[in-house]
Structure formats: C-alpha cells, structure tokens
Specification:
Layout lengths: L6 H4 L2 H16 L3 H4 L1 H14 L24 H13 L4 H10 L12 H7 L15 E4 L4 E5 L8 E5 L14 E5 L3 E4 L10 H7 L8 E4 L5 E3 L2 E3 L18 E7 L3 E7 L9 E11 L3 E10 L5 E8 L2 E5 L2 E5 L3 E9 L4 E6 L5 E3 L2 E3 L12 E6 L6 E12 L12
Antiparallel strand pairs: 1-2, 2-3, 3-4, 4-5, 5-13, 6-13, 7-8, 9-10, 10-11, 11-12, 12-21, 13-20, 14-15, 15-16, 16-21, 17-20, 18-19
Length: 407
Amino acid sequence: GAWAEGEGYGMTTCHALLELAEAARCADGKDLYAQAPEFFAGRLAWLLFVEQPGILDDARRFWVTGDMNRLRNWDAGLGQRLLLQEALKGTDLAAFASDYAEQPPKDRQYNSSNWLEVFWRDRATPRKPIAAFKLSHLAIGRGAVLMRSDWSETATHVGFTAGPLISYHSHADAGHFSVWKGGELATCAGDYRGTQNDWAMDAYIRTVACNSLLIYDPAEKMRHRHKNVLNDGGQLGYVEEDQQPGGSILAYDARRAYTYVCADLTKAYASSKVSSVRRQLVYVRPDTVVIADRVSATNPAFQKVWQCYLSGKAAAKDRTFGTDNGKVRLKAEVLLPEDAQVKLLGGQDKAIEVFGKRVAQPGGNGDDGPAWRAEVRPGAARGDDVFVVVLRVHDADLHRHLAMKVL
C-alpha cells in the first residue's frame, strides 16, 4: 500500500489511480479493485498508519518519506480512505477505517475534497473500534514498516524503511528510522525544494539526510538522477536505467508488545566499500526503540558514521544525546561501540554538512525540518563495527526529573 515515490506523490498520484478505478466500476462495471486486492487493501491500511498521531496546525501530519514537504494538505489522504472504504465495504479493514474516519478532527472543513464527503462518507456503514486494530503495518514492496504504540491522539509513532530504489523520487534512505510523539523527534533533514538543485542532489535526497549509516570511501565517485554528486559516504543513488536494489527486509515480527524488523542494507552501498551491512530494529511499546547495526567495511580506514536528525532543542553529553520538542523528550544512549564518540552538529543553520562541504537549503517558504544531527563514530579504525543505540521517549509531565539535565 505504500507509494514508491513517497507520500508527497502517493497523496496525489495514487488518488488519481483510485478515482480511475472508481470510474471504471461505475461506468463500465470493470472491477479494478479485484485485479489487485493486496494493493488496494494494503493501501487502506497504510493510509491509517501514515498519518501521525495528534493534530498540528489544524491537521494531521504525514510520515515524511521521499520527495515531499512536511506541511501537506491531508484532504487527499481522507479522499483515498473514503473511496477505499466504499470499495472494500463488508471487510473488517473497512470497518476499522470507518471508525478511524470518525475520530478527531471529524468536524474539520476540508479545503478541496468536500465532494468526496458528500458522495463517499457513509456514517451508517459498519464500524469496529480502531483501538482494536493492529499496531504495525508492513508495506513489503516499498520495504517500509510503520508502527504505533496505540490508536490514541498521544500515541508514539515509529517509522522504518529499507527497500529498493524504484522511482525517480525515491531517496537513498535504506535503514532510515523516525520517532514521533506530539511532533517530530527523530526525523529526516530538510524538505522538498526541487529535484535538480544542489540542495536536492548533494544533500536532501541522499543518505546523509537520513537516520542511517555512512561509510566514507574518499575515492568513491557518486551519481544520482543522472548527475555527478557530492560523496556523502552513503548509499548508491537512483539512476533510471540502472535501478538500485537498495535494502531488503529479511524478518518482520509484529506483536502487541513489540515489533521486530531485520533488514539487509548491503546492496544499498557500493560493494567496493562494504561487504555486509545489517540493521535490526525493535520497537518495545510504548516508548522504547532499540537499533543494532553490524557493519563490515572492505577497508578499516573508511569512516563509519551512525547518524540521527533531531527536531526541537537538542543536546549531547558523553555517550548520550536527545531532544525536547516542547511536548515530550527523546533520550538516546549509545551502548556500542564501547569506544563510541558522540557529536552534535547543527544549530540555527539548517545546512547539511557533507564531509567538509555545507549544502544550504534554498530560500522560500517551507517547514524545513530539524536543525540538529547527532553522529556516533567508532573511536578507532576497524573493518568490523557493531552499533547499538537505545532511544526512549519520555512524557514531559510524567518524567520531568529525567529531562535534559541528565545530558
């Protein structure tokens, strides 16, 4: 149900696809839904998870992935859900989606999709309480997993992606993770400002802008979208005639108490610099994320960087880092490597540092993302390294004594 280009395009292009399917059903009696049931059912489930918990700026925010701005018109998400609820009427999934559609802010006036409300919202349709719905969703084609602690407005939301680069608007983001509660905590850098400018080509669409791993071979020549680009130490870029395999999800185990994901990221990187890269993520509900990485470089001299972008007011000390988004706090503790060095980059300047060169965001309006990047580096040059980082979310009201003073 996920969209390869990211939800900036999934909310527009896929909407048109669903309208086409509905037109075919109404005009010709052709059931396109029945020809791809896994996609359409998966799409409806995905749309329930891709919206972040809580209301910000009188709307929900979408999980940020691929080419997209953080501030989205969420009417398209609503429209897709209503169309799919009607198409899948009678299924448990549609009943859960129908209940979700009645959650806050159900009385909001939509800007562009009022006609969808008139034609497709059926408040008499059977409903099942969304609180009983599953807490994780795997979109295997995209290689993405979205997870929630529960279905309340104050829930924690965790995202993870490790899939192939099969679209022009895909990013070199295999292994990227995000954490949200009351707003962004751990997220990706920047927002969508064009596809061919220096900001996009050298930073925004690259691994250096994601919460993943960099392995820096200073001699590596990198290309993305048919152009030579800065060497960010990251993954192979998308080239249309030579699509990259990216990452792949090897294991997925979703329970009410936890969700476990194991991904192989090896093929996302040039074989000249890595022989093995594997990331495991365990989300222990409600508020703990454990990330373990095993990295084998072909040359011990190649720098390895584990990185995480932080929204809000960030701080770091010794082997810990964290942030406060004004509502909740995120604290991360680095368990491995034993000689890990933690550094916090950033501040008010939201340029991205790409191994010695700073790439500035272009001007113009936009919610341009986090100002901070935490880096974890081994204390010595080695061919093989293991990273283990534990991230915990603390509610500000319940855990004031933990706060940032521990950092």
